[in-house]
Design goal:
The complex is a heterodimer of chains A (about 280) and B (about 325). With about 280 residues, chain A is mainly β. In chain A, about 10% of the residues lie in helices and about 60% in strands. In chain A, strand 2 and strand 3 form a beta hairpin. Classes of the chains: A mainly beta (about 280), B alpha/beta (about 325).
Chain lengths: ~280, ~325
């Protein structure tokens, strides 16, 4: 557990620290708040051998802005997703309630590309991910819930293409995040939470994760359209997250349609303010 | 490099995915699911093979013959219930909307050794209740605590008040007969009042894989002494065949303590921590998943023998006397 917490601090802290420099006083920043819902599919063999499916709700908050450097090619993104779901197996039986808070911080670089499509921009960079949540199965006795905690170093790519249709500015964007390496908490095959937390036998519960046991992908396909001074984002968030730890399998896929409001901010600061400014 | 990347990605994806067998909601599918859950997750298959020759593969072949896809729901439930009975485990149940399949032979085939009517004569009507504890002082100045279940919470404050009220007694009876168990932590909270030091009370392990012998290295389990009021005088713990599960664990802990004597009948057992799972038709199954052992690394799944074996006699029962309580009173009087 200590290893997990330490790596959490190191990964998130390093990436935050890299971004924690004063921005340019003429900094551009985009803030988006989206709300949506969709379908979640779930398999957690610690809780049940059956596939569960049901509805989800998602709240997503994103900040994206330029970092202060001479080249002007470094950007940072802070992404927070709150996810709740309510699933049942088919055709009948149990019921699970799940929730996950997912925070990621990405440090993007925009390489010089000669784009044949005009206003196409491409960003790529390292991402620190923290996932905390749980699933509660209302039928189970001594294994009623699964606590989820994962820290990952991931790679993220983001493409944006801006265009105008009927004199209305629009853009499409696609972001993909793939975790590469990290640590996760998961009980052993038949280990009870009584043994882990009450008796303190937690040595085998922290696992190293890499694509061989945690091949996951989160994509967001977004479409921004501007109405007068207001920009609206319609997006499809797809999150496939799977672990194979402690000889057990956890697989969650969520597809949600999101509707959000994009706030484009152009910061004008005094130089001394800019020096003190710590971005998100 | 870019050419092999898609192949590499596909290979990784295949490697990271494990096929989880999903059965149909048919009698055969439900039978296969149940048999497989027990085969991969039940923790006493090897131990019971040694004890009474249980062979889970033979059980499969025997009961598979009784499954037909046109059988009724009640018929399927009966066959699956019979199959689970082969495990001889009170922690194994199959729950359907119309019934619960169970194994209660660990107590039903034995003397009850407890009567509420007779016990009422000892408790009287003015006994005190501290959460899950009922307590009084018997005429010979012996404290009597009855713990009917470990499902009701036992708080530190409850124990402080109870032990304070009994402080002038020269001995104490803790009666856990007909206590079918509950929460292990409540049992340990109570036991912590009877030791002045940290003591080894047993071992616990868990399954590390689907094989019958896939277990973790047993870890020692210690009982920490309570830092509040602790009992320093002789104690008798009363048991019968219905002292099961968390109560069996309580007795396992208490018998390691120097001032404690266990009196009555062998406990019912139930030393596996139960987990739950489910079948495609929605029925729920409970089974033992994590075995625990006593200080000598012995299973207590089939019960713990008392230090003093006593049965309640019919003659005493008819006279309103509890033979087991009377034996404990005599023992405590001798140790005064």
């Amino acid at each position: 557990m200590k290893k997990l917490l330490l790596s959490l601090v190191v990964i998130i802290g390093t990436l935050q620290g890299m971004g924690a420099q004063p921005l340019r006083s003429d900094r551009f920043e985009e803030f988006t708040l989206s709300l949506g819902g969709g379908y979640t599919g779930l398999l957690d063999t610690y809780l049940s051998p059956l596939h569960y499916g049901g509805a989800n709700v998602m709240l997503q908050s994103e900040r994206f802005g330029q970092l202060p450097c001479q080249s002007g090619r470094w950007f940072a993104q802070s992404l927070f997703i709150l996810h709740g779901d309510y699933t049942t197996p088919r055709p009948s039986g149990g019921l699970t309630i799940g929730g996950m808070a997912d925070y990621s911080y990405t440090y993007y670089y925009e390489p010089r590309l000669i784009s044949p499509w005009g206003k196409f921009r491409f960003f790529v960079g390292p991402q620190g991910q923290l996932r905390v949540g749980g699933i509660y199965n209302l039928r189970n006795s001594n294994n009623p819930a699964q606590f989820k905690l994962g820290v990952n170093l991931a790679v993220s790519a983001l493409g944006k293409y801006a265009f105008a249709l009927w004199k209305t500015p629009m853009s499409v964007r696609l972001q993909a995040d793939v975790p590469l390496f990290g640590f996760a908490f998961a009980p052993d095959y038949g280990q009870s939470y009584y043994e882990i937390f009450y008796l303190g036998h937690e040595e085998d519960c922290v696992h190293v994760t890499a694509p061989h046991n945690n091949l996951s992908l989160r994509t967001t396909l977004g479409y921004d359209v501007q109405f007068r001074s207001c920009t609206v984002r319609l997006s499809l968030l797809s999150d496939l997250y799977q672990w194979r730890l402690g000889r057990q399998q956890y697989r969650m896929f969520a597809h949600s349609v999101m509707l959000g409001y994009v706030n484009n901010l152009y910061h004008v600061m005094r130089d001394d303010e800019a020096r003190r400014y710590i971005p998100y | 490099m870019f050419r092999i990347a898609p192949y590499l990605f596909t290979l990784l994806f295949l490697f990271s995915c494990t096929k989880v067998e999903q059965y149909e909601d048919t009698p055969t599918g439900n039978f296969e699911t149940l048999w497989s859950i027990i085969d991969t997750k039940y923790c006493f298959l090897d131990y019971k093979a040694e004890e009474y020759g249980l062979n889970w593969n033979t059980v499969y072949r025997r009961y598979k013959r009784k499954i037909a896809d046109d059988m009724s729901t009640a018929g399927l439930f009966e066959v699956l219930g019979e199959m689970l009975e082969e495990l001889r485990d009170g922690h194994v149940n199959l729950y359907a909307a119309h019934d619960v399949a169970r194994y209660w032979d660990f107590r039903e085939g034995y003397a009850a050794n407890f009567s509420e009517e007779v016990q009422a004569g000892y408790l009287g009507t003015d006994y005190k209740i501290a959460s899950g504890l009922r307590y009084t002082i018997l005429p010979d100045n012996i404290g009597y605590i009855y713990v009917p279940s470990f499902s009701n919470s036992i708080g530190e404050g409850n124990l402080d008040e109870c032990l304070h009220a009994l402080a002038l007694c020269h001995g104490l009876i803790v009666d856990v007969r007909d206590n079918g168990g509950g929460n292990l932590s409540y049992a340990e909270t109570l036991a912590a009042r009877f030791t002045n030091e940290r003591v080894l009370t047993g071992y616990i392990c868990h399954k590390t894989g689907p094989g019958h012998t896939d277990f973790s290295v047993p870890e020692p389990v210690y009982l920490e002494s309570s830092d509040r009021i602790r009992w320093q005088k002789p104690v008798c713990v009363l048991t019968n065949r219905s002292s099961y599960s968390a109560t069996n664990d309580f007795v396992k802990i208490m018998r390691t303590l120097p001032l404690v004597t266990v009196v009555g009948d062998r406990t019912g057992g139930g030393s596996g921590l139960p987990f739950s799972s489910e079948l495609p038709n929605g029925w729920s199954v409970r089974f033992s998943a994590c075995p625990s052992f006593d200080v000598d690394m012995q299973h207590t799944e089939f019960g713990i023998d008392p230090d003093v074996k006593v049965d309640m006699t019919d003659e005493d029962r008819l006279r309103g006397r509890d033979t087991i309580i009377e034996t404990a009173r005599k023992l405590l009087a001798q140790k005064k």
